[in-house]
């Protein structure tokens, strides 16, 4: 597939405009011009503070919707599509959702390796919804990370003290 | 429906991945709700906290090893993958070549430069420096470089004859000046506020100054400047903060029937040194009926000393004399990590950063899910 060159094309390409913060430099649109060497960078100092504010604004506005429910879903049986996620979060999320006793079935898939998409299928018993199970899974994962951090710091400090 | 809770042995058995001569068994974990009738197994943060522990084996800036015990493979793997691919580091991204008359081609030289690991002040690297984003308007690219997103480096070197070289000298490094170009020849050019974060011991410099970049001969010259940006390992391996971040499962060796005498010595040789030890059979053991030690008092027996050092080569399963006497396995929930930093982060900090990164991703996605429902 030819790389999108014009701005118009970029908008169509899914995920290309998502979370520019996270996008590695080589994934960003190509430029054809040569770039000037920065021996004259020094005179940019004046603009620094101003740019800082701009940048923080941009970081906050990164709210592009990356999760959606796929068509054909019902409240208790839904498939979710995550953009720009992979096995790292997919498998961890699958595990923690499967640990939920209200969930009858949960699995994740990456339908095609060249599309940055990850799908999660959740089927729950009556009385709760797939979306609730997903939310709980994400919360549980955060709690888990906190415990791991606490224990890691504790173990490391103990090890340092003993050494 | 009353169900007996699982015995201790049963719980222990579920934790073991079996290793046979040609096959492995019980690969998947089964601690999910509804898997065993009458057992709970649902997510409980307090139960997790109680069952989870971390042990450090060694902790150096360039290499840390520690065990995570009581965690699922999916989570352990998420940490490992995050360490390799998602923790940002600073690396050379763009090389502007003014002159390169060496035998090494511009693109090869640029690639080599990109792979050199750099270090610098932690506050500057992790807090002050931000992502550089290529502007969508291509004409603005030259005004997208700021002190907080670009680090500028220079490499200017010329090779010359060394007049002081002894006659008949054949060593090029003595015969010529700058015959070898090393990473230490790269010069950091601080811009704007970078002086504040990257001066003295905190200056941006190659982790290893002795990396050979190119070789020159008199009259040849390399003159180039470079831009460093922050990036992640999923974009290019040069941005990965680790040389390797890996884990393995804790090996389990169960000697089920006594291995004695010369067999015991042979058994010990089937494993790396220090895994199996030799002990004398005591009078008490020999007196115990049905233990297999009867009448063997004073002989040596094989005992497991340190299974962690085992490589699980399965060599002991190839020998007839040990058939049925030993059972190999691995502990499903005991992950022995080895994190080797390239030098920009401390090894243990990389792991902590990975955990924090995973948490942030979960938090961001939680917001997105809430937003999706709205």
Automatic annotation (TrEMBL), chain A:
Alphabetical list of PROSITE patterns matching this protein: RNA_POL_L_13KD
InterPro entries in UniProt: RBP11-like (IPR036603), RBP11-like_dimer (IPR009025), RNA_pol_Rpb11_13-16kDa_CS (IPR008193), RNAP_AC19 (IPR033898), Rpo11-like (IPR022905)
Compositional bias (Acidic residues): 36-63
Region (Disordered): 1-66
Signal peptide range in chain numbering: none
Domain of life of the source: Eukaryota
UniProt subcellular location: Nucleus
One annotated GO molecular function: protein dimerization activity
SUPFAM superfamilies for this protein: RBP11-like subunits of RNA polymerase
GO cellular component: nuclear DNA-directed RNA polymerase complex; RNA polymerase I complex; RNA polymerase III complex
Annotated keywords: DNA-directed RNA polymerase, Nucleus, Transcription
An example Gene Ontology biological process: transcription by RNA polymerase III
Main location: nucleus
DNA-directed RNA polymerase RBP11-like dimerisation domain: residues covered: 78-150
Keyword Transcription annotated: yes
Entry's family note: Belongs to the archaeal Rpo11/eukaryotic RPB11/RPC19 RNA polymerase subunit family.
Protein name per UniProt: DNA-directed RNA polymerase RBP11-like dimerisation domain-containing protein
Organism this protein belongs to: Dichotomopilus funicola
Lineage, uppermost ranks: Eukaryota, Fungi, Dikarya, Ascomycota, Pezizomycotina
UniProtKB/TrEMBL annotation, chain B:
GO MF annotations in UniProt: DNA binding; DNA-directed RNA polymerase activity; protein dimerization activity
Main location per the UniProt record: nucleus
Alphabetic keyword roster: DNA-directed RNA polymerase, Nucleus, Transcription
InterPro entries, per the entry: DNA-dir_RNA_pol_30-40kDasu_CS (IPR001514), DNA-dir_RNA_pol_insert (IPR011262), DNA-dir_RNA_pol_RpoA/D/Rpb3 (IPR011263), RBP11-like (IPR036603), RNAP_Rpo3/Rpb3/RPAC1 (IPR022842), RNAPI/III_AC40 (IPR033901), RNApol_insert_sf (IPR036643), Rpo3/RPB3_RNA_Pol_subunit (IPR050518)
PROSITE patterns cross-referenced by the UniProt entry: RNA_POL_D_30KD
GO cellular component entries: nuclear DNA-directed RNA polymerase complex; RNA polymerase I complex; RNA polymerase III complex
The DNA-directed RNA polymerase RpoA/D/Rpb3-type domain, residue ranges: 63-368
Domain of life: Eukaryota
Location(s), subcellular: Nucleus
Gene3D superfamilies registered for this protein in UniProt: DNA-directed RNA polymerase, insert domain, RNA polymerase, RBP11-like subunit
Cross-referenced SUPFAM superfamilies: Insert subdomain of RNA polymerase alpha subunit, RBP11-like subunits of RNA polymerase
Any one GO BP annotation for this protein: DNA-templated transcription
SMART domains: RPOLD
Family: Belongs to the archaeal Rpo3/eukaryotic RPB3 RNA polymerase subunit family.
Listed name of the protein: DNA-directed RNA polymerases I and III subunit RPAC1
Taxonomic placement: Eukaryota, Fungi, Dikarya, Ascomycota, Pezizomycotina
């Amino acid at each position: 597939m030819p790389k999108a060159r014009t701005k118009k094309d970029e908008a169509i390409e899914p995920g290309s405009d998502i979370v520019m913060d996270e996008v590695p430099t080589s994934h960003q649109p190509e430029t054809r011009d040569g770039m000037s060497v920065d021996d004259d960078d020094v005179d940019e100092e004046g603009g620094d503070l101003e740019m800082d504010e701009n940048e923080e604004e941009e970081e906050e506005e990164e709210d592009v919707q990356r999760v959606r429910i796929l068509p054909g879903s019902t409240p208790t049986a839904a498939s979710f599509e995550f953009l720009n996620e992979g096995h790292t979060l997919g498998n961890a999320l699958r595990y923690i959702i499967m640990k939920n006793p209200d969930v009858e079935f949960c699995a994740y898939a990456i339908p095609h390796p060249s599309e940055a998409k990850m799908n999660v299928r959740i089927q729950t018993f009556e009385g709760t919804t797939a979306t609730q199970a997903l939310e709980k899974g994400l919360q549980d994962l955060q709690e888990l990370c906190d415990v791991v951090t606490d224990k890691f710091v504790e173990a490391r400090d103990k090890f340092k003290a003993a050494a | 429906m009353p169900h007996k809770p699982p015995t201790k042995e049963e719980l222990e058995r579920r934790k073991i991945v079996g290793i046979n001569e040609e096959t492995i068994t019980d690969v998947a974990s089964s601690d999910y709700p509804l898997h065993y009738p009458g057992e709970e197994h649902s997510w409980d943060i307090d139960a997790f906290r109680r069952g989870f522990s971390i042990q450090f084996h060694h902790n150096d800036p360039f290499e840390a090893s520690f065990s995570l015990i009581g965690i699922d493979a999916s989570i352990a793997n998420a940490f490992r993958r995050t360490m390799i691919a998602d923790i940002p580091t600073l690396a050379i991204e763009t090389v502007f070549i003014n002159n390169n008359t060496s035998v090494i081609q511009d693109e090869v030289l640029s690639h080599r430069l990109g792979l050199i690991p750099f270090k610098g002040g932690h506050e500057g690297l992790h807090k002050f420096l931000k992502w550089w984003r290529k502007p969508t308007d291509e004409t603005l690219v030259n005004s997208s470089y700021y002190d907080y997103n670009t680090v500028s480096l220079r490499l200017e070197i010329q090779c010359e004859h060394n007049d002081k070289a002894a006659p008949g000298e054949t060593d090029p490094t003595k015969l010529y000046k700058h015959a070898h170009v090393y990473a230490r020849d790269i010069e950091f050019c601080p811009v704007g506020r970078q002086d504040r974060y990257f001066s003295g011991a905190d200056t941006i410099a190659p982790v290893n100054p002795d990396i050979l970049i190119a070789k020159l001969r008199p009259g040849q010259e390399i003159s180039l400047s470079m831009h460093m940006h922050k990036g992640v390992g999923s974009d290019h391996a040069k941005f990965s903060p680790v040389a390797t971040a890996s884990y393995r499962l804790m090996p389990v060796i169960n000697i089920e029937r006594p291995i004695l005498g010369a067999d015991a010595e042979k058994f010990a040789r089937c494993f790396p040194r220090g895994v199996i030890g030799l002990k004398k059979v005591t009078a008490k053991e020999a007196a115990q009926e049905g233990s297999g030690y009867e009448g063997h008092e004073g002989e040596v027996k094989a005992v497991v000393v340190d299974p962690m050092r085992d490589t699980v080569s399965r060599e002991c399963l190839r020998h007839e004399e040990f058939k049925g006497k030993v059972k190999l396995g691995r502990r499903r929930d005991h992950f022995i990590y080895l994190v080797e930093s390239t030098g920009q982060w401390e090894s243990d900090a990389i792991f902590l950063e990975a955990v924090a990164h995973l948490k942030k991703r979960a938090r961001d996605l939680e917001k997105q899910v809430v937003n999706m429902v709205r």
